[in-house]
């Protein structure tokens, strides 16, 4: 499918979605969020794709929601249409692993979008921030919640209240990103991580994603029970038999997602 605000490339079992609004630092307008949501829905259904990379440009992953589109909106417009909120649901609902490969600015909705992915790989040029407070608003796509979970109350409060940006090193120390890599190697590293994931059984990776995400939604005992049941469930798959046999036979497993 052809998109106007992003590109989608598929290589073997990996799909790369690149946000592409270069004139607006990849600001997230309604069209982009709709196309992102459509692209993710299609990739999630694909039999071939096993891992998705979401990235932007060298300068900007995304500099937030599109301010030009929001400037004249009223409470009633926001409350009744709630476009942003609904388009974002597809990102969360995607069952295949999504890696955010972030270079340059990830601000406001851009930082929130990166945090909706399963983990963030950051270029050493990455800058994260929730500067909505400078616009007389506040984070609205999960920033007060996901940033707080990722970096703790002190840093989340400071960033959201003052609008201060975090550089890549600080983001790694704080636990917001999994790793920092040289900007030139960002996509190579993201592909390598995606290839590792794509080698595994899609049944395992989807079950892991669902179980880790449960830890944010439920008390420990419920999360542990959910994990145990998912673990038990994987013993009904051919991939479990193949993975264990291959280990014992000292060969590479051939996972088929069955
Ligand atoms: N929206 C629209 N246009 C933008 C945005 C944006 N968020 N960010 C940058 N642009 C545009 C600029 O207006 C400029 O356009 P033009 O060339 O036509 O003047 C172009 O991109 C380049 O930007 P700059 O000239 O400003 O580039 P600099 O390198 O000087 O600065 C920055 C880069 C620091 C990224 C700067 O552009 C900036 O501060 N941008 C705004 C960041 C921001 O405030 N983000 C938060 C937006 S609000 C939000 O995300 C709320 C999300 C929750 C919504 C939930 C709804 C339910």
Automatic annotation (TrEMBL):
CDD domains: crotonase-like. It comes from the Bacteria. It catalyses: a (3S)-3-hydroxyacyl-CoA = a (2E)-enoyl-CoA + H2O; a 4-saturated-(3S)-3-hydroxyacyl-CoA = a (3E)-enoyl-CoA + H2O. InterPro entries: ClpP/crotonase-like_dom_sf, Enoyl-CoA_hyd/isom_CS, Enoyl-CoA_hydra/iso, Enoyl-CoA_hydra_C. Its EC number is 4.2.1.17. One of its GO terms (biological process) is fatty acid beta-oxidation. The keyword Lyase applies. Keywords: Fatty acid metabolism, Lipid metabolism, Lyase. Gene3D superfamilies: 2-enoyl-CoA Hydratase, Chain A, domain 1, Lyase 2-enoyl-coa Hydratase, Chain A, domain 2. GO terms for molecular function: 3-hydroxyacyl-CoA dehydratase activity. Could possibly oxidize fatty acids using specific components. Belongs to the enoyl-CoA hydratase/isomerase family. This is enoyl-CoA hydratase. It comes from Qingshengfaniella alkalisoli. The lineage of its organism: Bacteria, Pseudomonadati, Pseudomonadota, Alphaproteobacteria, Rhodobacterales.
């Amino acid at each position: 499918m052809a998109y106007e605000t992003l590109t989608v490339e598929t290589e073997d079992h990996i799909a790369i979605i690149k946000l592409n609004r270069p004139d607006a630092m990849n600001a997230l307008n309604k069209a982009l969020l709709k196309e992102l949501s459509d692209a993710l829905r299609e990739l999630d259904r694909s039999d071939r794709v096993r891992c998705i990379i979401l990235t932007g440009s060298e300068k900007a992953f995304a500099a937030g929601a599109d301010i030009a589109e929001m400037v004249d909106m009223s409470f009633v417009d926001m409350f009744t249409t709630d476009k942003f909120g609904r388009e974002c649901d597809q990102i969360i609902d995607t069952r295949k692993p999504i890696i955010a490969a972030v270079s340059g600015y990830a601000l406001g909705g851009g930082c929130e979008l990166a945090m909706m992915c399963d983990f963030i790989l950051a270029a050493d040029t990455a800058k994260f921030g929730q500067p909505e407070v400078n616009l007389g608003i506040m984070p609205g796509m999960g920033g007060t919640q996901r940033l707080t979970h990722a970096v703790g109350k002190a840093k989340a409060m400071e960033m959201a209240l003052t609008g201060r940006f975090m550089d890549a090193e600080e983001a790694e120390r704080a636990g917001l990103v999994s790793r920092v890599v040289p900007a030139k190697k960002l996509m190579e590293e993201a592909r390598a991580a995606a290839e590792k994931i794509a080698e595994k059984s899609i049944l395992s990776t989807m079950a892991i994603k669902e179980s880790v995400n449960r830890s944010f939604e439920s008390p420990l005992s419920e999360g542990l029970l959910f994990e145990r049941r998912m673990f038990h469930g994987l013993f009904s798959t051919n991939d479990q038999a193949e993975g264990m046999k291959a280990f014992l036979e000292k060969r590479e497993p051939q996972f088929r997602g069955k």
